[in-house]
Hints:
Structural class: alpha+beta
Distance between the termini: 34 Å
Radius of gyration: 11 Å
Amino acid sequence: MVTCYLITIMKDVIVKNVPDELHLRFKTFCVMNGISISACLRDYMQKLSVETIVTTETIIEMDDDADKMKS
């Protein structure tokens, strides 16, 4: 079963209903790949919609896109 987290973009990236453990994991992912959490989320969300559901699986999928975001 996949846990879902709502991520909304307004003026900047606002992350709602994300447990501390996942938030820390997400921030670690961004730091390890040399990108900011806001830029990472913005880039991903632009491919989808203004408001969407992000799951733990999509964070894993984002790892595949990290190299593209760095360039």
